[in-house]
Amino acid sequence: MLAACRGTEIFIGVVLAAGLFWTALGSLAMSRARLGGRGAWRVGLGLLAAQGPLLVLEVAFARYRSAAWNGVAERSFLQAALVALAATAPAALAGGAGFVCALRAAGSGGFSRVYPADAWGGALGGALFSFMLVEWVAPIAVGPFLAAVLCLWLRPESGKFRRVSAGLVSCEILVGLGLVWSGLDRRLEERRWHALLPGYRLRTVRDSRYGRIAVLEHPRTRQFSLFQDGGLTAVLSPGKPAPAARDTALFVLAQSRVVPRDVLLVGGGLDRSPHEYRRAGASTVDVVETDPQLLALALDLQGDGAPDPAVRYRCVDGRRWVRAAAAAGRRYDVIVVQPPAPLSASANRFYTRDFFSDLREVLRHSGVVVISIMGSANYPGGTAGRLSAVLYHTLMGVFPEVRAVPGDRHIFVAGKQPGTVSVSPGELGRRLAARGVWLDEFDPDFRTNAELYFTALFEGMIPASQTQGFAAYLRRSRAPTNTDFRPIAYSYALLVWNQIATAAPDSRDPGLNSGANAFFRRLSAFRFQYGLLLPLALLAPVPLLWRLRKKRPHSSVLLRYGVAAAAFATGTFGMATEILLLYAFQNTFGYVYGYLGLLTAAFMAGLALGATAGRRRSSGVRSPAAALGAGMVLCLALPVVLRALHALPPAFDGIGVPAFLLLAFAAGAIDGVTFPLLAAVRRRSEVGRAASSSDSGGAGIYAADLLGAALGALATGAVCVPLLGIEAASFLTALTLGAAWLTVPRGASPS
Amino acid sequence: MDRRSFLERMAKFGIGLEVLPAVASVAWVRDRVASSGETEAAFYRKLPDNRVACLLCPRLETLKPGETGFCRVRTNRGGVLQTAATGRPCVVNLDPIEKGPLNHVLPGTAVFAMAHAGCNLRCRYCQNWQFAQASPSTTRNLRFDQMESVRLVREKALAGVCFTYTEGVVHLEFNLRFAAAVREAGARAFLCTAGFVNRKPFADFLDQLDAVTFTIKGATDRFYRDVIGAPSVRPVLERCVQARQAGKWVEVATLVVPEMNDSDRDLRRIARWIGRNLGRDTPWHIERFMPKYKMRDRPRTPIATLERAREIGREEGLNFVYLSNLAPHPGNHTYCPQCGKAVIKRLGFRLLANRLKHGCCPYCRARIPGVWG
To answer: What is the 8-class DSSP label of residue B219?
Structure first.
């Protein structure tokens, strides 16, 4: 799902929320069914066996749907949500229903055993996915193999069941092997690319820790296009000139008043750009690319013969490289930053004030930084204009002088000293001509009048009228600063992307007011105080229920509401914390794709241990209020810890990943310990009622927890983090827990 | 009726008295705001039930009251078709005339390039989507003074005005008036259009134009349907011929999108049609596709494809085939069809050298067709 939907946090939130929503619905629906222990066993086994084919369908549907969307790679938020809802429905519904079956099959008191087992399953699944399946098995074949293992593990006692179970295991294994051998995954991928780029040949598909890489070949011209998670990353034409890269190199090097010696390219170095910088006069070019697999593929496809020793490729995260270079005393004359659009935390961190401050450290006295962003050459306003304004004001917060050139990609040039950068074609032409720069492909008639030639070249790149208009627009605009911990550019980029994706060909609306865009546009006015509505909503029914309890002292409705609210808040806390950690992980390390499963596994392991501890008297924690309090403390401490981890120098990388896993584990443990405690409180209110009522109560808590988790994933991923920042999102989560803490019944849980 | 229900009813009545006029006034204000700055459109027919039929473009839409046309510019306001393009352009620039592209008209001069928001096509690769795929009510529009603009054209010795970036025919009412004012002041008026317009309105517009660049976006109806959002290429071809027959200078541009309209067959079809219907001296601009709008994940056109298209154009007998969005390249220059020497040298849209003497080749004195002075 993530590979099909660009792998951004928004989609992590959307996919998780969709899955959790269906799981909640599945468990609620099954809690209404009248099933005995034996019947529950049968249905549970059937649902478990069905998970294999259902997961296959889920992956196939995600791939097919992404291909069939009018051949357009972009999906709007609403479309993505619909795909996520449709794709995750069968497996998640079955999962939710399976949980209640397990509950019934386990008999009385089974709740406190099933929940930890469910969590352990989650942890094991996450770890398996991270360490084995993502590398060894195509994602589409994962489902049947997992279902086979689980059916084998259940080992029913009755002979008849055992035979059925064995049959199911065999079927699952056969289906899994069939999927691996048939190459269905590859064919689905081919189908997807054929719909998006008909006529192009899919040359290779690879999974790396940074995302799914696809290489497409234009059959007649041997032009290769490299895609990462569906986004066009580089276009290579081996042995052919690259005029756009050349012009950019000339423009960038002309920005420096002195002859630039050392150039750093952060991203954008997969094509011929480094060689164009060398041709244009740079002595050395350091190219920093994050994904070694992508770089190896690009270099292999370029096949340029003998490598240029002055072009040095570094496979490391760009931000970490800049920090390391600053520590090592390395300095550059020109730094060119060409990250993808800030549609994910990992891309946004190259547009932040924090990163620009780091860049300033490694610039020489007369050095310049060049960065570009999507735009429109002739019109400065609109959604893309607002994004440009954010970048401009963020740069202005660090550099004394920033100039912008409008174009298909707006180019921003920032100088460490005032008076360095220029957007005058004449001035830039003079600088290059004075250095004696001249390239073979230029018109020899103008060799003796290079200044005129370069001026004409730059006049084409820097349209005077548009540049003046754009500068005036940027000066007048007011925009917030984009930082690592408040990635506002992410939200603005989302608006641009959603406008493009939403505008339907036959619609009168230009994509601004239809779909989720009207919602997103209004959302950009979201303030911290609006976030208080959730905790207030949790508290709102309490006075009413209090009055009701006074009238009917034997009613347990207040207690039940408190338990449900606490379960909801705990779910919100768990998923919000997980999203915050995923976000911060990307911020710190620059990727999350390969660690997504591991972080989830750590969270689920915490959940399992917490749940196990919660049902034992010896664990010390006896009141759900105490667990909620611990959650609040974690939420309040989280921003401080994340900032500390973020600021760690590269030498301390070894403790970064374990620290994140530990935080995920702690969040899971708090979530896990709360659950059985709430179940115990709820059971107390059910004393003397039928067993099915008790099950229904357990399923209700589970559903409330999952619904809270769905809301937490969506609100944190799509709203709170981009618009308010990590600190505010953590604080709001703490307040939500606080509201639940006020409503939850006090006192120790019964044994 | 007890006291409680009496009070309830009175409260509801009071709220009703307060709210209804407020709702009515909000609706009235909204309607007034929406229609402010609009003028009555030309080229429409009134129909029963306050419906109108827009006759501007081949879509021939019938609009109910309150409905806006496909172009997002023309709205039926109570049985009267109003246009929102009334001198509130969202873009005004001074551009080189070659950017049009117009390579055979006053080379090296600048034009007053302007555009209103809105378009009657839905090109999936729209290069100006931020305002072309928008309506005038959603863009940041400029205060525009016609007299001041005409004065600017004269003061800066501009070649004239060029209606470009978006589809100028959609904003025909205003553009017609402004073109007439500019021409009255002694300058010229140019139009860059996709040509998806009906004969009569275009004939009126042509009267006030000196040169037109048509974009023939593809060779087939299928391409127009799938990528451009128009039912057929036929009206476009008819308008090209109409402009030529009206004696206007015509140039043609085609954006070559890889694997969509770049087959030899399609390109040859366009080149052959131009040669046969507009004449072999009609300049044909082959433009390089850059990933944009809804086609941001399609790679840019390979240079080899563009060079092949240029070859095809020449094979089909076209004398002036240019490559755009690719510089420097020999395809940027104008060559004398007789002696083959470069008579105008360009670097992209920028003029490097104009060797023409009174519109003739300085080497063999062959006449080079165009508007040179």
So the answer is: S
Distances (CA, A) of B211 to A479, B188, B189, B370: 42, 9, 7, 10
Domain spans in chain A, listed from the N-terminal domain onward? 1-107+139-182, 245-485, 528-751
Residue-wise pLDDT tens digits, B49-91: 999 999 999 999 999 999 999 999 999 999 999 998 778 899 9
Distance to chain B for A344, nearest Cα, Å: 17
pLDDT in tens, A645-686: 888 877 777 788 889 999 999 999 998 888 888 887 777 666
The 10 Å Cβ neighbour count of residue B58 is: 18
For residue B67, the chain A residue with the least C-alpha distance is: A508
* pLDDT tens figures, A436-480: 888 888 888 888 888 999 999 999 889 888 999 999 999 998 888
Q: Which of residues 169-198 of B touch A (CB under 8 A)?
A: none
With beta carbons less than 8 A apart as the criterion, state whether A273 and A292 touch.
no
Measured CA to CA, the distance from residue A602 to residue B352 in angstroms comes to 65
Chain B 283-312, residues with CB within 8 Å of chain A CB atoms? 290-294, 296-300, 302-305
For A40-70, the pLDDT digits (tens) are 877 887 887 787 788 788 777 776 665 544 4
The encoded tokens of residue B149 equal 């603009």
What is the distance in angstroms between the Cα of B258 and the nearest Cα belonging to chain A? 9
- Alpha-carbon gap, residue B162 to B92, rounded angstroms: 10
B162 contacts on A by Cβ (under 8 Å): none
Chain B residues with beta carbon closer than 8 angstroms to that of A218: 258-259, 299, 302
Is the per-residue pLDDT at B197 higher than 70?
yes
Distances, alpha carbon A270 to alpha carbons A225, A237, A294, B288, in Å: 11, 11, 8, 22
CATH class of A245-485: alpha beta
Q: Coil, strand or helix: which one is A63?
A: helix
CATH numbers and ranges of domains, chain B: 91-354 (3.20.20.70)
Assigned CATH for A528-751 = 1.20.1250.20
Q: List C-alpha distances in Å: B316 to A179, B22, B102, B311.
A: 52, 68, 21, 9
pLDDT over 80 at B334, yes or no: yes
Q: Which residues of A42-66 are buried (b: 16+ CB within 10 A; e: fewer)?
A: bbbbebbbbbbbbbbbbbbbbbbbb
Q: Please tell me which residue of chain B has the smallest CA distance to A505.
A: B122
The pLDDT tens digits for A594-616 are 677 778 888 888 888 888 887 76
Cβ atoms B182, B189 nearer than 8 A: yes
